[in-house]
Specification:
Elements: E1 4-8, H1 21-27, H2 58-63, H3 76-81, H4 87-97, E2 112-121, E3 128-130, E4 138-139, E5 143-146, E6 150-160, E7 164-175, E8 178-190, E9 197-200, E10 204-205, E11 214-223, E12 229-240
Parallel strand pairs: 5-12
Antiparallel strand pairs: 1-4, 1-12, 2-3, 2-6, 6-9, 6-10, 7-8, 7-11, 11-12
């Protein structure tokens, strides 16, 4: 089976959007997984002013957080300047923000999140490091997992400019054009800091059995409460009877 890995970094630039599963089912039998599998080329855009991942299905709209008007967004520097004569309030703000590099936040309102590394952890196996950035239009399966194996996902990312609220990870998986899994993981709210953050998901298990084995396509996205998209990857992966050889 042919597979493609495609990455989209939505940072106020026009980028291609991912293929819809219905289109894939019509055009070609390109598979998917609970972690990702075969995906077709993508068309579409993330918006320039407020980059967003393209909508997958109606349920994405239903699952989207309700938008609450919290007033105008202000920079961290401006927040710190407010009530600066109140020593207790200033200390509380600095404690809330954690290890922020106050000299580098400036006047920027929009947070910037960069996904630095992705890896798959499975007990008794070497960690699987997924290369970033992904080479555009790369061919081949991105990774292979053994059926019935426990695993965790590990993300390393940096936050700069401003606080990012409600950063989350979503992963949708198809097999032969049929959606078989959709996972969402709330990572949390993070303030800017020099050191990268690391997040490890709860343990999950790959499916097993004759019908579980094969090739899958998947779409992984990282976005925030405003549905601003920081990274979108379309890729393929396999689930096999055994782990691939590491030699």
């Amino acid at each position: 089976m042919s597979s493609a890995v495609e990455t989209i970094s939505c940072s106020k630039v026009d980028v291609p959007a991912g293929p819809e599963p219905e289109e894939k089912a019509k055009k070609a039998a390109v598979p998917a997984e609970h972690g990702g599998d075969a995906a077709a080329p993508i068309n579409g855009k993330c918006g320039e002013a407020a980059p967003r991942c393209h909508e997958e299905e109606e349920e994405d709209e239903e699952d989207a957080p309700k938008v609450i008007d919290l007033g105008p967004m202000v920079s961290i520097k401006e927040q710190l300047e407010k009530d600066k004569d109140d020593e207790s309030l200033r200390r509380w703000k600095e404690q809330l923000l954690g290890s922020v590099d106050f000299n580098s936040v400036g006047e920027t309102l929009e947070p910037d999140v960069k996904i630095m590394s992705l890896s798959i952890l499975s007990p008794g196996r070497p960690d699987i490091f997924l290369p970033l950035p992904v080479e555009p239009k790369a061919k081949g399966v991105w990774f292979t997992l053994k059926e019935g194996s426990p695993y965790r996902l590990k993300f390393t990312f940096s936050v700069s400019n401003n606080i990012v609220s409600g950063l989350r990870y979503t992963n949708t998986v198809w097999k032969t054009g049929i959606k078989v899994d959709r996972a969402k993981e709330m990572l949390g709210t993070f303030s800017p800091q020099l050191e990268p953050y690391t997040y490890v998901t709860p343990e999950d298990t790959t499916p097993s059995g004759m019908f579980a084995r094969g090739s899958y396509s998947a779409r992984t996205k990282f976005l925030d409460d405003d549905r601003k998209c920081y990274l979108e990857i379309n890729y393929t992966f396999d689930i096999r009877r055994e782990w691939p050889s590491t030699s």
